[in-house]
Amino acid sequence: MGGLNGDEEAAQGPNQVPRKSLLRYNSPLVQVSLIGLVCFCCPGMFNALSGMGGGGQVDTTAANNANTALYTTFAVFGVLGGGIYNVLGPQLTLFSGCLTYVLYAGSFLYYNHHKNQTFAIFAGALLGVGAGFLWAGQGAMVTAYPPPGRKGTYISLFWSIFNMGGVIGGLIPFILNYNRSEASSVNDATYIGFMCFMTFGSILSLAILPPRKVVRDDGTHCSNVKYSKVSTESIEVLKLFGNWKMLLIVPAAWASNFFYSYQFNHVNGALFNLRTRGLNNVFYWGAQMLGSVGIGYIFDFSFKSRRKRGLVGITTVAILGTGIWAGGLANQKNYSLKNPPKKLDFKESDYVGPFVLYFSYGLLDAMFQSMVYWVIGALANDSETLSRYSGFYKGVQSAGAAVAWQVDTHKVSMMSQLVVNWSLTTIGYPLLAVLVMLAVKDDVDTPEEINKGDSYPVSVVDANNGGPVKST
């Protein structure tokens, strides 16, 4: 992660303002770290809950239907989220989005007592709206705030902090259900623990600064554009559906959450007992931290040419992905819906092989999504454009996830789900490579070049208080 200290190196110019504080509050480093902490508390804990398989319940029907409702609304508000973020700004957008995570966790606490899935489905649908808000804002921040030559590093920083939420969230059910190895559903304390973290994350989101107040170490603002208009954003969002760059991203976006239903329900949920599923999630999300850091290094530091780094990164993910899915295919031959496996405990000798597979799935997830985020971030530099691009990505991603959860609800065979997941991810690699070759320019170094073509003027400002020093 040494690249975080290379902001000056990545964006040098004749009017560079020297850094006065390592942890400046209005720096990209601090702001990306803050959105990482917000996602640690909210979607990080949601991931830990989902990773239990069936939302921690023995019957996956309620969780599958809730997730279908979630990703259906997410598909719509993910696309609209970028425009909403540009109109409302980060604090209101993120805060309202975070609160819906608390309600979702609470719906499963309710389900633990009443076994009525109506509340869970409603909460899932509402969470889809909130998640659209949150992830559009997050995408704009992690792709627009860093210097162009350090976007992979900042994406990996965010991904590491965010997935630490899944690690801690995995420990919650593991510890609270440790002596319940034969239990089928998690206890109330597990859901309450998730809700406490999510509430804190909602409050923390109010500390996020608007992009016009965030200043890079070279003195340039991340954006000087103030809040947009609803009419403007509506037109710009509609244009995305005819944007050839976005169309090339569609297959990878569709695939990037499609595999969760298979991995959570038919690998972690099918192969392991309750407490072991919690432990597995600690390592699944921990693997994501490793994967994001590794691929972030390749995208930022492997070669001088940014286009070459992109192609090498995509090739690396493609090779590893092929190997991991091949391992999954070998494992899936041992069981099916009609021939369920014996539930494994982490103390048993047969645990290691399936555990390594599940760990590898987490590694691949982070590398795949970091790859797509890097490509999106390489297409522009201003937060307005990137919030729309990120929203489009999350919308398509969520549409795929909505379909995947319903596929699982209709009891499609495990082997068929695996083959479809493997095929979808494979289709995305060459299309992303084409996009990098056609649309990604090699690194730029000066503030003038960094902002060339963006919708805001370049100014060099005092890095600590945001006041102007001089204009260029």
Give the structural class: mainly alpha
How many strands in all?
2
What characteristic shape results from the CA principal axes?
A: globular
Helix content: 55-70%
**Tally of DSSP helical segments:** 17
Strand proportion, as a percent range, falls in under 5%
Strand order of the largest sheet: 1-2
Biggest β-sheet: count, sense, barrel? Answer: 2 strands, antiparallel
Order of helices and strands: HHHHHHHHHHHHHHHHHEE
Sequence stretches where pLDDT stays below 50 over 5 or more residues? 1-18, 445-472
N→C terminal distance = 31 Å
CA-based gyration radius: 22 Å
Mean pLDDT: 83
Which features does this protein show?
two-stranded antiparallel sheet; 17 helices; disordered N terminus; 68% helix; 472 residues; disordered C terminus; mainly alpha
Helix and strand arrangement:
Layout: H1 7-10, H2 28-41, H3 43-51, H4 61-88, H5 90-114, H6 118-144, H7 151-176, H8 188-204, H9 230-239, H10 244-255, H11 260-271, H12 274-301, H13 306-332, H14 352-377, H15 383-409, H16 414-439, H17 447-450, E1 459-461, E2 468-471
Antiparallel strand pairs: 1-2
Helix pairs in contact: 2-3, 2-7, 2-8, 3-7, 3-8, 4-5, 4-6, 4-9, 4-15, 5-6, 5-8, 6-14, 6-15, 7-8, 7-12, 7-14, 10-15, 10-16, 12-13, 12-14, 13-14, 13-16
Give a description of the structure:
Helices cover 68% and strands 1% of the residues. The longest helix has 28 residues, at 61-88. It has a two-stranded antiparallel ribbon with strand order 1-2. It is globular. α2 runs parallel beside α3 (43-51), α3 crosses α7 (151-176) and α6 packs across α14 (352-377). The chain is built from 17 helices and 2 strands.
